[in-house]
Amino acid sequence: MMILGIPAPLLFGQLLLGVINGAFYAMLALGLSIIFGMLNIINFAHGALFMMGAFAAWLMLHYLGIGYFPALILGPLVIGAFGIVLEKVLISRLYKLDHLYGLLLTFGLALVIEGLFRNEYGSSGLPYNIPRALSGVTDLGFMYLPVYRAWVVAAALVVCLTTWAIIEKTPLGARLRAGTENPALVRAFGINVPRMITITYGAGVALAAFAGVLAAPIYSVNPDMGDNFINTVFAIVVIGGMGSIMGSIVTGFALGVIEGLTKVFYPQGSATVIFLVMVIVLLFLPRGLFGKAA
Known about the structure:
- There is one protein chain.
- By secondary structure, the chain is mainly alpha-helical.
- The protein has one domain.
- The chain contains eleven helices and four strands, in the order ββααααββααααααα.
- The chain has a two-stranded antiparallel sheet with strand order 1-2. Strands 3-4 form a two-stranded antiparallel ribbon.
- α1 (8-39) runs antiparallel to α8 (193-215), α2 (46-64) packs across α3 and α5 (147-169) packs across α6.
- The longest helix has 32 residues, at 8-39.
- The protein is globular, with a radius of gyration of 19 Å.
């Protein structure tokens, strides 16, 4: 069967890869948007923290015998706690300074973290097997759908939409937004704003770690795995609108699909299509597709 001159299995296979990449783009962009929107920090260490999530799952399995599903909960909690320590010790000192200081600090942290893991585990990559409950494929008639990849997309959608609902539709989310807009007024109501900011950063880091655990069975667990995503994810955050939660989710999935289809129809442009979209969007909408006017 041919579609637009392309064999259907090839077209749908690349479309599936695009949706899977879009799921990781959306989760990582969501964490970045939360941290920037609530804390005003450009977190360049996000890719390294994503990598730490994958390594947390691998270390739990090989040294503690903890399987995939417990690691999916414990990994984000452990890396999120690490993020809280980073925020309290280092990042909290930069809130009143220019964005450039936060970018430089988190970029340096990413280099240090990746270097430590590279020295300890090398760069070749470590295997992490798909859990038995999620192995196998489903025949859809027009293509074979790996069960684990369907699980990744479903889990990403649930996590992204739940996070959006918490921030946009709950009293907790209202307090978070108010704490970034007018912290002095929020303190007057007896709310501990610094603690709220610290927890917010930890939650953004936990989202990156959750994506890392999901990615471990798909990509080899290696210190450079975050670098393969982070530049693209920053472009997606800019396209969606800096600090826009729904913008990050929609743009992440949409551009993952666009990237996947580009690999079918014009493979040479697949590595640059997202950045081309970013240029076009910024020419006409400098605040991004979903960003708010200053």
